[in-house]
Design brief:
single chain, mainly alpha, Rossmann fold, Tyrosyl-Transfer RNA Synthetase, 2 domains, 3-stranded parallel sheet
Length: 332
C-alpha cells in the first residue's frame, strides 16, 4: 500500500468565514482530504500577532470557524482537525527555530512590510509580528509535512519555511525535517459587494452562514457595471462583481445567457441578481442546515476536536523527540 503524503494548512480565527474563504481555501481542503494525509488547524496563536491587545473574541471565533469547516465538508474521519494552542509543542519548536533563524530573513519578508503599512490602527512593531513566520514554520515542519497548499501570494512564506528546515538539518547534521513543497492552488478572487477585494475590514463580505434575508439583501445591493445606468444600456459583464459569482454558482448555460444578455441589454441587473440569489441559496442552504445541526451538538464537536488535538499532539511529540536528540537536549 502506497503511503499518502502529508499536508498541513491552517486559518486564523478572525470571525465567520465568508465566500472568499470557502472558494479560496476550504473547498480545496475538502478535495485534498481524500488524496493526502491532512492536518488542518485553527491558528489562534497567529491571531494574537495582530489582536494581542484585544484577544477576547479569538476563542469564540475559533469555534465558529470549526463549525463552518465541518458544515462545508471537512471530515474528522478523513483529516485531523485541531487547535494550535492546544498542542503546546508548537511553542517549543518555535522557540528552538527562533534560535537558528537569521534576523534578515524575517526583515525582508514582504508581508511584514506590507501589513505594517496597511494596518495602521494597530501597533505591529512587536517581536511576535516580526517572528510569526518562524511560528508558521514550526506549525508545518513539526508534522513533517510534505506539502502546504497555498496561493501565489503565500509562496514567500513557504519558501522561508523551506529555508529554516534546511538550516536546521544542516546545523545539526540530521535530516529531521522534510523540506515541504508549496502545493500551488488556483484561488478564485472573489470581489466584495462593493467591487473591492472581499475583506472583513472593508465590511463587504458575504458570509457562509449569515441569515438568509441578510444575504439576499446584500446581493440585491451589490455593485454592478457602473456604465449600465438603465436596463437598455449595454454592459460589460466582466467588470461586474455579480458576474464573478455567476461563474461559481450558475450553470455554464446560464453564465453564457447572462453574459450575452448583459452585452445586448436584454437582461437587467435586477433579474441578473435574482438568478444569482436562487443559485447561491441552492448551494449554501444544505451547508447552512448542517451548521444548524452541528450547533445542536456542540459537545460532539468539542469531542471531535479533542480527538484531533490528541492525534496532532502525538505526532508533534514524536517530532520533538527527534529535534531534542539532534540538538543534544534529550532527557537525562
Amino acid at each position: 500500500m502506497v503511503e499518502r503524503k502529508r499536508i498541513l494548512s491552517g486559518m486564523r480565527p478572525t470571525g465567520r468565514l465568508h465566500l472568499g474563504n470557502l472558494h479560496g481555501a476550504l473547498e480545496n481542503w475538502i478535495q485534498l482530504q481524500t488524496q493526502y494525509e491532512c492536518f488542518f488547524f485553527v491558528a489562534d496563536w497567529h491571531a494574537l500577532t495582530t489582536d494581542y491587545a484585544d484577544p477576547k473574541e479569538i476563542r469564540a471565533n475559533s469555534w465558529d470557524m470549526i463549525l463552518d469547516w465541518l458544515a462545508a465538508g471537512l471530515d474528522p474521519a478523513q483529516c485531523t482537525l485541531f487547535i494550535q494552542s492546544d498542542v503546546k509543542t508548537h511553542a517549543e519548536l518555535y522557540l528552538l527555530l527562533g534560535m537558528v533563524t537569521p534576523l534578515p530573513w524575517l526583515e525582508r519578508n514582504p508581508t511584514y512590510k506590507e501589513q505594517q503599512q496597511q494596518i495602521t490602527t494597530k501597533d505591529l512593531a512587536t517581536y511576535g509580528f516580526l517572528g510569526y513566520p518562524v511560528l508558521q514554520a514550526a506549525d508545518i515542519i513539526i508534522y513533517r509535512a510534505n506539502g502546504v497548499p497555498v496561493g501565489k501570494d503565500q509562496l514567500p512564506h513557504v519558501e522561508l519555511t523551506r529555508e529554516i528546515a534546511r538550516r536546521f538539518n544542516f546545523l545539526y547534521q540530521r535530516e529531521v525535517f522534510p523540506v515541504p513543497d508549496a502545493l500551488l492552488t488556483e484561488v478564485p478572487v472573489l470581489p466584495g459587494t462593493d467591487g473591492r477585494k472581499m475583506s472583513k475590514s472593508y465590511g463587504n463580505c458575504l458570509y457562509i452562514t449569515e441569515p438568509e434575508a441578510q444575504l439576499v439583501q446584500k446581493i440585491r445591493n451589490m455593485m454592478t457595471d457602473p456604465q449600465r445606468a438603465r436596463k437598455t444600456d449595454p454592459g460589460d459583464p466582466e467588470v461586474s462583481p455579480v458576474f464573478a459569482y455567476h461563474k461559481l454558482y450558475s450553470s455554464p448555460e446560464q453564465v453564457a445567457e447572462i453574459a450575452a444578455g448583459c452585452r445586448g441589454a436584454s437582461i437587467g441587473c435586477v433579474d441578473c441578481k435574482k438568478i444569482l440569489i436562487a443559485n447561491v441559496l441552492e448551494r449554501l442552504n444544505p451547508l447552512r442546515e448542517r451548521r444548524h445541526q452541528l450547533e445542536r451538538d456542540l459537545a460532539g464537536v468539542r469531542e471531535m476536536i479533542r480527538a484531533g488535538n490528541e492525534r496532532a499532539g502525538s505526532e508533534a511529540a514524536q517530532t520533538m523527540e527527534l529535534v531534542r536528540d539532534a540538538i543534544g537536549f534529550s532527557p537525562w
